[in-house]
Amino acid sequence: MLPATWSRLSCRALSSRGQRTLSLFSSSGPSNWNKVVSDAEKIVGYPTSFMSLRCLLSDELSNVAMHVRKLVGTQHPLLNTARGFVYDSKNNLQMRGLVVLLLSKAAGPSRAASDLLPQDMVSGIYPSQRNLAEITELIHTAFLVHRGIVNLKEWTVSDGPLKDMQFGNKMAVLSGDFLLANACTGLAELNNTKVVELISSAIGDLVQGIYSENSSHPEENSLTDGVDMSSWEEQTFLSHGALLAKSCQAAMELAQHDKESQRLAYKYGKHLSLGHKLNSDLQPFVKSSVGEPVSFSFSAAPVVFHRQIVGQERWNQQLQQVQTQRHHLDYSKLLAAVKSEKGVSTAVDLCCYHSNKALEAIQAFPSSEARSALENIASAVTKF
To answer: What is the pLDDT averaged over residues 290-310?
Structure first.
């Protein structure tokens, strides 16, 4: 069940200097997020994009890149996914690895670790923890690539030639499998049974979460019922939160920190990822202006919460009211309908809740530059 205290929570974030109120609808949201991430990358020794170079410069990936170029001119999602790894000004696609590195540095060496020497650390992070951060990114990237598989039953001529779309699907499967195989090889090389168990279970959670999403939302335009708030959070944790939460815990295990440190690291990763997903879901609802083209998912948190708040009958009526003559949905009108009720404010309250829980978890770690960066990242998810 979801916390009953959302609606009573204001967006206040804890820091080592006390409490400060955050501006929710700041126009400088994306630039603020990029600055927070850029500053954090300097603390761990190098930008996290460096972690992908070993993979991207390999002969196998070079061949994959050459084949992906054949998709230029089509609408295959794999092409946009590949572009996003080269440059994406809106989202830091490698946030997970960065958080793992920051937590590793914030926790520092364990007093109980007799076989781990502080002099083996680089920028305050053990080599095994850096390898774990890279493995986490490879797994996340593999699933992003796999999600780019197109349903050819819905293929249209405007998407591109059918043979190119079929080729794109094959590339998405093979490329994703290649990245996942590399991640599993690296995971075995860590030589830690508990870490292997944690990350393996996270991969299982990802599969289960994505399967649940696809089975719950068959066709967006015909969707008239779906998950409630509690189910939304459970599904979102599996598909977006489990990997980061368990990777954070695994980073503590590699440094032989106690169970309490592992629990707090898990808690930080879980609540940060849920807050980040809520921030992403809220973007069309807090940024859209009158007259702008609008696009959003029916599985976005504000829509799910709105549907539960207004009830199924009222939701069906609203869907009928925004249908065009060609039986398509007018997303601008639907967005206005969702904004007129409490679905958006409920999602904002929940985003603040998860940000506060992440900040609460990190307070137990020693005060440091790395901990401050983790606080800034948790705070940034409540700025839109």
So the answer is: 80
